[in-house]
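FORM 12-B: Structure-to-Sequence Request
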């Protein structure tokens, strides 16, 4: 690979690569560790938190703190500028066992995935029915009623779908609308499956959205909409391919929907008349949990003959220009330089997704939101989303989110024991409540069941982890 050769020229260090097919990686990695036949490093290691703690504790992989301070100036500069990234890769024992990796389009609340659920509406139907863009949940409800009863597509059939979504998916989930009741509900956290869904943070306090009064009010309201025929009942079971088809019917039938990008659902021919519905008055917009970055970067093992040299080689990848080439592809193959010196994707790449797999070394480096601004600008569609996040949603967005916490071994045991049952039960009852409503007695039974499943103990783990994360930022 061109980039591997380029790194060798830059460092004067030769790497003997042992490449493993991704589907076989975990099995072969475990065999190497069990046999003691270790490489000097795992590049783009992808170790789980449990593995990092276990192998850090028994000495299979070495702590990197001192190596970073003494031999990794590029990474150290990143940590100095972004202590949150350092905190994310710092284990509960204070050591850093693996390097950060990922691409961060935008930063903080303005990150591209801060709110993965945009609400879109058929503006042509609004105009035809003499309606304005809704500014409150009640106004939105009234628009949905009009879409259902006044034949806005003009075909004389009751085939309009006022509202559709994809339940509990990473995007397109109805939990965005729960923010109109003050309790946005999050059903997906990127880059870390260790913690449950439905977590919010306010003034340092971690809460479980699915037991709050506002959540109860939200599911009751959606149940009323279902009863009125305003909600596509297939929303609770459909997959995204089925969802896409509803936006591309020969005659338009979709009134409003939640998704990452309207073009995916309705196609480029119709996307212009499906604008974003701005957040309703007093609505709390969710700031999605997790992080665009991960602890999945490289680790150095106890077999490294010269750990300082390995660290110095890895540090080359944390120079932003080199990071871009490692993560996408080298200049001349993936990038070309623009007149102002920025790296831009070459225009003659016919299938970027497939081509990137061939030319990117991958496995490491962090490309931050600032790097996208200064070094390699994002594609136009991504930039539009960043602008929409900043201008439309950030003013009403939550001020805190639950980050990608590094839990202790004991905490991970508690999560593994309690989370699966609690999360499965919460999600199944959420769908049931939205379809059929919930009485006060049913709500009380639901809360009691979650308590008996150990929700309080699980929440203590999340709170302890968050407190430790905040302390690591200081």
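FORM 12-B RESPONSE
SEQUENCE OUT:
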């Amino acid at each position: 690979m061109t980039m591997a050769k380029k790194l060798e020229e830059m460092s004067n260090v030769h790497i003997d690569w042992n490449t493993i097919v991704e589907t076989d990686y975990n099995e072969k990695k475990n065999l190497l560790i069990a046999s003691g036949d270790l490489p000097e490093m795992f590049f783009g290691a992808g170790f789980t938190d449990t593995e990092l703690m276990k192998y850090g504790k028994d000495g299979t992989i070495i702590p990197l703190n001192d190596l970073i301070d003494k031999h990794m100036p590029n990474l150290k500069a990143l940590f100095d500028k972004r202590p949150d990234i350092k905190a994310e890769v710092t284990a509960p024992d204070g050591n850093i066992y693996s390097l950060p990796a990922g691409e961060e389009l935008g930063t903080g609340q303005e990150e591209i995935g801060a709110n993965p659920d945009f609400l879109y509406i058929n503006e042509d139907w609004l105009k035809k029915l003499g309606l304005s863009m809704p500014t409150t949940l009640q106004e939105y409800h009234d628009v949905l009623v009009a879409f259902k009863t006044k034949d806005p597509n003009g075909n004389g059939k009751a085939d309009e779908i006022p509202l559709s979504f994809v339940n509990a998916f990473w995007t397109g989930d109805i939990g965005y609308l729960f923010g109109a009741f003050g309790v946005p509900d999050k059903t997906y956290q990127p880059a870390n499956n260790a913690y449950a869904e439905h977590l919010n943070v306010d003034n340092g306090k971690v809460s479980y959205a699915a037991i709050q009064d506002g959540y109860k009010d939200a599911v009751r309201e959606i149940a009323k909409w279902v009863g009125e025929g305003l909600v596509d009942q297939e929303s609770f079971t459909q997959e995204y391919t089925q969802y896409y088809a509803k936006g591309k019917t020969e005659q338009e039938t979709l009134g409003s929907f939640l998704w990452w990008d309207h073009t995916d659902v309705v196609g480029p021919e119709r996307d212009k008349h499906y604008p974003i519905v701005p957040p309703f008055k007093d609505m709390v917009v969710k700031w999605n949990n997790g992080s665009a970055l991960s602890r999945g970067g490289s680790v150095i093992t106890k077999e490294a003959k010269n750990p300082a040299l390995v660290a110095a080689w890895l540090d080359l990848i944390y120079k932003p220009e080199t990071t871009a080439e490692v993560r996408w592809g080298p200049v001349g193959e993936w990038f070309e330089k623009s007149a102002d010196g920025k790296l831009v994707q070459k225009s003659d790449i016919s299938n970027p997704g497939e081509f990137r797999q061939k030319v990117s070394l991958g496995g490491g480096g962090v490309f931050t939101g600032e790097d996208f601004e200064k070094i390699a600008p994002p594609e136009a569609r991504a930039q539009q989303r960043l602008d929409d996040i900043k201008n439309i949603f950030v003013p009403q967005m939550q001020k805190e989110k639950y980050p990608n916490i590094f839990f202790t071994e004991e905490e991970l045991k508690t999560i593994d024991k309690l989370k699966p049952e609690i999360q499965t039960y919460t999600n199944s009852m959420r769908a049931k409540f939205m379809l059929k409503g919930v009485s006060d007695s049913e709500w009380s039974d639901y809360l009691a069941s979650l308590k008996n499943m150990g929700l309080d103990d699980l929440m203590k783990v999340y709170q302890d982890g968050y407190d430790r994360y905040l302390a690591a930022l200081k």
